Amino acid sequence: IMGSSHLILAKNGWFISLFLTPTVTSFEAATCFLPRKLNRDRGDQIMVEHYRETFDEIQKWAEDEFPNRRLILRKAFNAHRQRDYELSIPVMLAQADGIGAEIFGFSPYESGKKIFKKHIEQKLDPLSVKLFRDYFSCVAQELAIKKSARSDTQPPFPLSRHLVLHGISTDYATEVNALKTISWLQYIIAFKAEAK
Q: How far apart (Å, rounded) are the C-alpha atoms in residues 182 and 121?
C-alpha cells in the first residue's frame, strides 16, 4: 500500500504534499479507503485534520510561487476561513486550472496519460521523477475531480471541477470538499516546485 497510497487517496479526492504530509498520515488515511477496511469517514477526518494544520503554509507557498495570483488566492483562502465554501471551492478549482496551464501548457483536467507522462519526463527533475513517480503520475489518472459527470464507480459525493464550475453540482460546499480542493491546488503547485 505504501507506494500506492498516493493513488488511493487521489481516487478519493485527496492529494498529499511531498513536503507537508507525513508518510504515516497518508498511509493511515489511505488504509481507511481500502475496500476490506472501508471507513471513508475516518480517512476523510485524518486528511481534514492534516489540511487544517497545514492550511496557512499552503496559502503562503501558493502566494509565493504565483505572486500574480496572490490577491485571488488570498481572497479564496479567506473565504475558506469564513466557511464560505460556495465561493472558495470554485475559485480554487479555477486557480488550479490556471496554475496547471502555466506549468504544463494545458489544463491539468485534460485526460491523456501521454501528455502528462511527457511533461513529467521532460520538465521535472530526473531525481524527483525517479523518487516520486507514483506521486506525480496521479495527475494522469482518471480521477473524480477530472470527471465531467457523476459516476457510480466513484466514491460518494466526488468533487468534480466540471460539475462545480458549470453549476451542475449544488451540494459541494462542505469543509471536506474545500480541503480536498486545497489539497488539489497544492498538488498542482508541486509540479512547479519540482521542475528542472
A: 25
**Over 50: is that where the pLDDT of 1 sits?**
no
Q: pLDDT, tens digit, for every residue of 148-182? A: 665 544 555 568 888 899 898 899 999 999 999 99
- CA dihedral 36→38→111→60, nearest 10 degrees, is -130
H or E, element range at 74: helix 70-81
- At residue 158, the pLDDT reads 65
Inter-residue contact 46 to 32 (CB < 8 Å):
yes
CB crowding 50-84: b at 16 or more within 10 Å, else e? bbeebeeebbebbbebbeebeebbeebbebbeeee
Q: CB of 194 within 8 A of CB of 145?
A: no
Q: For the whole model, what pTM was predicted?
A: 0.86
Count Cα atoms within 13 angstroms, Cβ side, for 57: 10
Contact 147, 154 (CB under 8 A): yes
DSSP string, 141-193: S--GGG-SS--TTSPSS---HHHHHTT---S--SHHHHHHHHHHHHHHHHHHH
For residue 9, give the amino acid letter: L
